[in-house]
UniProtKB/TrEMBL annotation:
This is Glycosyl hydrolase. Residues 384-443 form the Glycosyl hydrolase family 30 beta sandwich domain. One of its GO terms (molecular function) is glucosylceramidase activity. PANTHER family: GLUCOSYLCERAMIDASE, LYSOSOMAL ACID GLUCOSYLCERAMIDASE. Belongs to the glycosyl hydrolase 30 family. The keyword Hydrolase applies.
Length: 449
């Protein structure tokens, strides 16, 4: 008999609860309505991990608003692979994003100032809250990979003269590449290696009320090919470069970049706010061997009822992984009771954090995003290889992996409106049969014999 660990979410009152497999009701094969066949002989991408972002807002809430005991408990529950859910992929904004208390870069200057030597470059802002949390996370889980994405270049490098709106001036392409190098070197000096960067967060969106920078594909390919990659080579940096970092609905953008800069680009980063995850596979088919990463998806009040919101993360997460992504990264690690803090002038925020830190009461609450991430991260570990999995009933979604220790992990979601009796088979051998309520999730870890 294989040793099987099972976790189940069956509605708002039962979230990621470990189930005793021995106490499951005995179900006959006649009652099976969905069979999941896992083929360990067919493998796909290697997983890097699951996570979210220590935005300025999230880091402030966790590092300054929570007390030491709460923070220790939270960090363990987030990152410890045994005592927590073992998150292992973090995306760091390079400077301010929409979720920051102020608008800042690492090289802010008075109006009309320039600093081509980057003599004023400093990551002091991040040394207050962000870097201590990243260091603590890495101690809890040394397998964590860090990536970084800028929302904007410093204002003096842009056509707008501000971190809001505008484009990168061509005469500043080289100094901006140097800015990336300085960031990577500064974080490395704190024991924080940067696995990958993207050239620009959401390059096709030019927000009016928070940091952003329009970067057309023709601009991005030149910046990466002629400035960023050569600068990494000159400084001996092995940090990977991912292009795009925006929604599934514009696969033409990464295809344009890769057509001219395939040698300099290591992969493509995607968000979920438009289009469908199949875009990931479409671009990979055109450029095999390039890494696929899912780098941002936020839940929020636009999907208000609990069931719909939880279902969205589970359903979409499974499809993201089935479409070759090596990572599944949500957005803010923490937000407060007002879904903030946000940059001044942002307006009403509707995003949801992985946890909520109430600034008035200092209460810490784990949101549905925490439990949804748990369904993936607890059983699918870094360097796991995705296995082929097929369902006889399309309403039961599945994804499966083989972990480095030989165990097989499967994440299942019943997307239908009726209870299903599910049989999981590995290489044709029935491993387990159990019932799944409508809109419920199950994660299994089946140890090797």
């Amino acid at each position: 008999m294989r040793d099987i660990t099972m976790y189940q979410s069956n509605g708002e009152n039962e979230l990621f609860v470990e189930q005793s497999v021995a106490q499951l009701p005995q179900l006959s094969g006649d009652t099976v309505t969905a069979t999941i066949e896992i083929d360990a002989g067919q493998t796909y991408q290697e997983i890097d991990g699951f996570g979210a972002s220590f935005t300025d807002s999230a880091a402030y809430l966790i590092h300054q608003v929570l007390d030491g005991e709460q923070r220790t408990e939270l960090m363990s529950k987030l990152f410890d692979p045994q005592d927590g859910i073992g998150l292992s992929f973090l995306r760091n904004p390079m400077g301010a994003s929409d979720y920051a208390r102020t608008v800042y870069s690492y090289n802010d200057l008075p109006e009309n100032g320039t600093d081509p030597e980057l003599s004023g470059f400093s990551i002091a802002h991040d040394e207050a809250d962000i870097i201590p949390l990243l260091q603590q996370a890495l101690k809890l889980n040394p397998e964590i990979k860090l990536m970084a994405s800028p929302w904007s270049a410093p204002g003096w490098m842009k056509t707008s003269g501000s971190m809001l709106t505008g484009q990168l001036k061509p005469e500043h392409y080289q100094v901006y590449a140097d800015y990336f190098v300085r960031y990577i070197q500064a974080f490395a000096a704190h024991g924080l290696p940067t696995y990958a960067v993207t050239a620009q967060n959401e390059p096709l969106y030019e927000p009016q009320h928070y940091p952003g920078m329009l970067m057309l594909p023709e601009e991005q390919l030149v910046f990466i090919r002629d400035y960023l990659k050569p600068s990494f080579i000159n400084h001996g940096l092995d940090t990977r470069i991912l292009c795009y970092d925006h929604n599934w609905d514009r696969p033409d953008y990464p295809l344009t970049v890769l057509e001219e800069a395939a040698a300099e680009v290591d992969g493509v980063a995607w968000h979920w706010y438009g289009g469908a995850p199949a875009a990931q596979s479409e671009v990979l088919a055109a450029y095999p061997g390039k890494e696929v990463h899912f780098t941002e998806g936020s839940g929020g009040e636009w999907i208000p009822p609990f069931e719909q919101a939880f279902s969205n993360v589970m359903r979409t997460g499974i499809e993201i992984l089935r479409n070759h992504s090596k990572s599944f990264v949500l957005w803010n690690m923490a937000l407060d009771e007002q879904n903030g803090p946000t940059v001044p002038g942002f307006g009403k925020s509707t995003c949801r954090g992985v946890v909520t830190v109430n600034q008035q009461t200092r209460e810490l609450t784990y949101t549905l995003d925490y439990y949804a991430l748990a369904h993936f991260s607890k059983v699918i570990r870094p360097k796991a290889l995705r296995l082929d999995s097929a369902a006889s009933n399309e309403l039961v979604r599945s994804v499966a992996f083989r972990n480095p220790d030989g165990s097989v992990a499967a994440v299942l979601f019943n997307d239908g409106e009726a209870e299903e009796t599910v049989a999981v088979k590995l290489q044709g051998e029935e491993v387990l049969t159990f019932s799944m309520a409508p809109k419920s999730a199950v994660s299994l870890k089946v140890d090797s014999k």
